[in-house]
Amino acid sequence: MSRIQQVFADLKTAGRKALIPYITAGDPDLDTTLMLMHELVAKGADIIELGVPFSDPMADGPTIQLAYERALRQGVGLNDVLALVGRFRETDTATPVVLMGYMNPVEFMGYDRFVDSAVAAGVDGVLVVDMPPEECQELTDKLHAKELDTIFLLTPTTSESRAKTICAQSSGYVYYVSIKGVTGASTLDVDHVAQQLNRLRQFTDLPLAVGFGIKTPADAAAVSRVAEGVIVGSALVSVVADLQTAGAVEISSQVSAIIADMRQAMDHA
């Protein structure tokens, strides 16, 4: 059983839902990201999604795009992100880390080298936003062979036939995008999310985690009533942006406080 599967199994036994914060690696710098990862875990995060900076993030709104730009200006690339995960593993061997990014850096590194490096660093799962499920077999086979989970996105506009294909390629959990559009956009409609999740459950037994549009503890609590996981990204990254010159301690304090409030709200939902 992978670390991701173990987390969801333990949470199900405990009657709780997974809280999955997303942050961009290297925003505003790698040392701050490392501190933030540990603080997020201390305040109730179950899994960490770590964004790999990329110059053309087509699924992300302005908040995440600017985070990528801040990291890229410092020269942060895929090798640096993998090294960061290795540093995180020096003191945390339990919390799953999922790399979330785009295909170009993986292809540039090469599938075999990427998979081997991810395993060596302590990565648990990979979400490649622009990897079509119809063209992913080679990479997913290599990832699964090394017991790395493959997480895919499903959206409100995903057809039934494509949802079946995506669920068949997925492991660990399935990421359901709650809104039409990019990260940080629009308003959350939890009733519609619940309907969509019920539709998807006929295709998979994997946990369903919901992201995009979750900004407040009330949002997190509402989504936790209908999904196995709650993913929070832009609400955290926007705080990092506001405090980028304030220092690692202040950034970690304020971002982890948001997660603590969401954790509390979810546990009382």
UniProtKB/TrEMBL annotation:
Pathway: Amino-acid biosynthesis; L-tryptophan biosynthesis; L-tryptophan from chorismate: step 5/5. Its EC number is 4.2.1.20. It comes from the Bacteria. InterPro entries: Aldolase_TIM, RibuloseP-bd_barrel, Trp_synthase_alpha_AS, Trp_synthase_suA. The keyword Amino-acid biosynthesis applies. SUPFAM superfamilies: Ribulose-phoshate binding barrel (SSF51366). Keywords: Amino-acid biosynthesis, Aromatic amino acid biosynthesis, Lyase, Tryptophan biosynthesis. The active site is at residues 49, 60. The keyword Translocase does not apply. Transmembrane segments: none annotated. GO terms for molecular function: tryptophan synthase activity. It catalyses: (1S,2R)-1-C-(indol-3-yl)glycerol 3-phosphate + L-serine = D-glyceraldehyde 3-phosphate + L-tryptophan + H2O. PROSITE patterns: TRP_SYNTHASE_ALPHA. GO terms for cellular component: cytosol. Tetramer of two alpha and two beta chains. The alpha subunit is responsible for the aldol cleavage of indoleglycerol phosphate to indole and glyceraldehyde 3-phosphate. Belongs to the TrpA family. This is Tryptophan synthase alpha chain. The lineage of its organism: Bacteria, Pseudomonadati, Pseudomonadota, Gammaproteobacteria, Oceanospirillales.
